[in-house]
């Protein structure tokens, strides 16, 4: 179904499918970072375009004939290319700069053919990493909205900013399995469920690649696969059985690839069962052959470890500068018979075809890239994402706050734009990067601070606001005791290159919350993190609002949520455990793994399929807050759950019907979630998420909702299937399936049974 995002972002008004297509305490070792060579190649002046003929393309550039297919144009270009010119296309920087001929290490190429564009890469899993871009909420907050339309709108916005900033390949979105909440890049991903991750990533990709045909951008789905920790990510092996690989870690990528059709996919740093991802047969055998992916596969920065094994396994492009795919090493591999010219040609063809197909050849980057990218529309979308992705975890009548003359205490360094010991609202705008002493992963120089937005709101109602940074617990308690309500902000920082060591708040945050709760009449906690949080104080506070890293418009969104201008509707896309001991990776062999004699950290995925909420259900462990949990300022009731047909043949669509009623007196959105339990044959003692839908209801209103699992979705998402290792195929088990509907994975209706023949 086509999604109209025009009311959210003007640049997304046209949807045109392309043709054919915390703490950084635990350090990692990343030898592949190549002395931190810049990720993006520097722009080179474009070659003069030859004079055109009477036709629509330059006489010397027949590959610019737009009447031809992308396949034909790519083949014509490569037929006119020397072998070394083809080699340029399979390394990022030589592909990016057509006229540059030399790179560090005495790597030399001939000049590229004319009429080839500049190809400029940019980081972008959390939004565009470029000066002037809109600092959006992180991907885990995007996931908490459970809203593919919003994800597509984000993709459209980011693509527009990317092109205007002089970039046309975006390294994002990212998908992972959510195996451990300690993973440093948790905020860059969509949580612990592969269906949710795949569906949202596909929507984001469609927004990136389809919404701005005059400003084309190629999406890059990353990091394939089982890249589940930052610790020794380039010297570790993710060891698991094939069923776990296919159902948990590969499924999100499969859904995003089949439904989003990204132009490129990035292989990860880690090994899978002892073979590096970028030279693993999974690239050819699964991604290209089984899924039918016809884009190109690129490496991560420094994740290539070989020449011939990588190329023949399906790697098409080495990211950054030439190291393993240099002309010298490729010629050596040719001479040794390890590769053929056809291998080089095939990789180059995939790259060129995608660039032509996406429009990069026909829509050159601007000569004067902009650093003034943010607009009123992009700020509005950032605010909407922050509001819809925030999760009300607990509320004992404290929220929403009244529009009266309240005395409000705001406590905690991240509430203010004025740094306290180097910590401010900027510190929790996005994930944290260690470079240059630390910075947000997406530039966020001037966020709307919660303190400013709250102060404006309170003073407009005749109240007062008192701020305390929270470094002095006695002062914080005194300020809290004098107020009608205390709003205390807790945080921790996390990001790429390091895992966090625990799920506790930074800056003695737990002690701060406890001190405030002991003193205040009413305590509201706002948590700002990129993953789950342990809350030893949760029983002592009146409300908890989790806002993740909420981007530039964080203050406005938080104020609107606290006072009820916006009714909270976010849902947790990952489980919050009571403690790390409850997680599925609680042994050293499972995480962080054990370093063997060769220096490789062996990480045993012995929990198998029991990742995230599946683990808590199978083990009977009650989490702090379950996957899918999220409260509202109103109440919703599910009733009359039914599924049709009750007996069907494999491949038939399924319709899950139910009545959803707003039984409260406030309008709001509920995310209805559909879970499925497979027959006993599958051996899965847990539910799996198979569908979801945001539903808006006015007070007292009810809607008869139908969530249709189409034939295509049943197949591409394997909703009724498990992966059978013996037959090496997806199998639909025999027996009764059970459907449950509800507001969270631990708050579901009685089961309704059906069978599939």
Quick description:
This protein has 19 helices and 33 strands. It has 757 residues and is an alpha/beta fold. It folds into 3 domains: 265 residues, Glycoside hydrolase, family 3, N-terminal domain (TIM Barrel); 173 residues, Glycoside hydrolase family 3 C-terminal domain (Rossmann fold, 3-Layer(aba) Sandwich); 121 residues, Immunoglobulins (Immunoglobulin-like), CATH 2.60.40.10.
Architecture overview:
With 757 residues, the protein is α/β, with parallel strands linked by helices. It folds into 3 domains: 10-36 and 121-358, Alpha-Beta Barrel (TIM Barrel), CATH 3.20.20.300; 390-562, Glycoside hydrolase family 3 C-terminal domain (Rossmann fold); 636-756, Immunoglobulin-like, CATH 2.60.40.10. The protein is built from 19 helices and 33 strands. The strands form 9 sheets. It has a 6-stranded mixed beta sheet with strand order 12-20-19-17-13-16, with helices on both faces. Strands 24, 26, 27, 31, 32 and 33 form a 6-stranded mixed beta sheet that branches. A hairpin with a 2-residue loop joins strand 31 (736-744) and strand 32 (747-748). Helix 5 packs antiparallel against helix 13, helix 6 (194-210) packs parallel to helix 8 and helix 14 (450-460) packs across helix 17 (554-562). The longest helix is centred in the middle third of the chain and has 18 residues, at 341-358. The radius of gyration is 26 Å and the shape is globular.
């Amino acid at each position: 179904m086509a999604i109209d995002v025009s009311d959210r972002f003007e640049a997304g008004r046209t949807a045109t499918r392309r043709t054919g297509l915390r703490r950084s305490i635990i350090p990692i070792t990343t030898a592949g970072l190549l002395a931190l060579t810049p990720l993006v190649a520097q722009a080179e002046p474009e070659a003069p375009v030859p004079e055109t003929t009477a036709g629509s393309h330059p006489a010397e550039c027949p590959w610019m004939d737009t009447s031809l297919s992308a396949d034909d144009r790519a083949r014509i270009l490569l037929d006119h290319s020397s072998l070394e010119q083809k080699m340029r296309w399979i390394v990022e920087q030589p592909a990016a700069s057509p006229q540059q001929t030399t790179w560090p290490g005495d790597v030399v190429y001939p000049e590229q053919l004319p009429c080839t564009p500049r190809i400029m890469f940019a980081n972008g899993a959390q939004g565009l990493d470029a000066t002037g871009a809109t600092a959006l909420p992180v991907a885990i907050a995007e996931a908490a909205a459970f809203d593919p339309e919003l994800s597509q709108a984000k993709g459209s916005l980011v693509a527009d900013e990317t092109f205007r900033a002089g970039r046309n390949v975006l390294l994002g979105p990212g998908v992972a399995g959510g195996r451990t909440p300690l993973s440093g890049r948790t905020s860059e991903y969509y949580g612990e469920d592969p269906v949710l991750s795949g569906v949202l990533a596909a929507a984001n990709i469609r927004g990136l690649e389809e919404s701005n045909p005059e400003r084309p951008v190629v999406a890059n789905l990353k990091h394939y696969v089982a890249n589940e920790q930052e610790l020794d990510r380039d010297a570790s092996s993710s060891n698991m059985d094939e069923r776990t690989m296919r159902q948990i870690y590969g499924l999100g990528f499969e859904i995003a690839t089949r439904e989003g059709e990204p132009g490129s996919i990035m292989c990860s740093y880690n090994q899978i069962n002892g073979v590096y991802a970028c030279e693993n047969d999974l690239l050819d055998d699964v991604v290209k052959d089984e899924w039918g992916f016809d884009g190109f596969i690129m490496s991560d920065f420094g994740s290539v470890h070989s020449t011939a094994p990588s190329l023949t396994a399906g790697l098409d492009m080495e990211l950054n500068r030439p190291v393993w795919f240099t002309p010298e090493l490729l010629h050596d591999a040719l001479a040794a018979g390890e590769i053929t010219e056809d291998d080089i040609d095939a990789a180059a063809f995939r790259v060129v075809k995608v660039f032509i197909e996406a429009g990069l050849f026909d829509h050159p980057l601007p000569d004067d890239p902009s650093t003034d990218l943010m607009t009123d529309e992009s700020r509005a979308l950032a605010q909407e994402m922050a509001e819809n992705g925030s999760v009300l975890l607990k509320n004992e009548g404290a929220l929403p706050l009244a529009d009266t003359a309240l005395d409000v205490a705001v406590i905690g360094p991240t509430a203010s734009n004025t740094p306290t010991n180097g910590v401010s609202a900027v510190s929790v705008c996005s994930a944290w990067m260690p470079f240059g002493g630390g910075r947000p992963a997406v530039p966020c120089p001037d966020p709307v601070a919660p303190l400013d937005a709250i102060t404006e709101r309170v003073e407009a109602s005749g109240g007062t606001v008192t701020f305390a940074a929270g470094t002095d617990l006695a002062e914080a308690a005194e300020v809290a005791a004098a107020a009608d309500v205390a709003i205390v902000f807790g945080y921790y920082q996390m990001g790429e290159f390091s895992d966090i060591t625990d799920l506790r708040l930074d800056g003695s945050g737990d002690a701060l919350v406890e001190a405030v709760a002991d003193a205040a009449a009413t305590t509201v906690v706002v948590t700002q993190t990129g993953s789950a949080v342990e809350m030893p104080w949760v029983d002592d506070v009146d409300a908890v609002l989790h806002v993740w890293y909420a981007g530039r418009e964080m203050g406005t969104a938080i104020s609107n949520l606290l006072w009820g201008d916006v009714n909270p509707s976010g849902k947790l896309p990952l489980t919050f455990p009571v403690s790390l001991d409850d997680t599925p990776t609680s042994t050293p062999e499972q995480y962080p793994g054990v370093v063997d004699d060769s220096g490789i950290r062996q990480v045993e995925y012995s929990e198998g399929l029991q990742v995230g909420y599946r683990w808590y259900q199978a083990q009977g462990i009650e989490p702090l807050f379950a996957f899918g949990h999220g409260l509202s300022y109103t109440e919703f009731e599910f009733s009359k759950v039914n599924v049709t047909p009750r007996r069907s043949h494999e491949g038939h669509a399924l319709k899950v019907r139910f009545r959803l009623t707003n039984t409260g007196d406030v309008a709001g959105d509920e995310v209805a979630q559909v879970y499925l339990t497979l027959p006993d044959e599958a051996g899965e003692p847990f539910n799996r998420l198979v569908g979801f839908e945001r539903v808006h209801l006015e007070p007292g209103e009810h809607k008869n909702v139908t969530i249709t699992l189409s034939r295509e979705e049943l197949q591409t998402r394997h909703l009724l299937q498990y992966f059978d290792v013996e037959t090496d195929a997806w199998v639909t088990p025999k027996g009764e399936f059970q459907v449950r509907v509800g507001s969270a994975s631990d708050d579901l209706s009685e089961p309704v049974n059906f069978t599939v023949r």
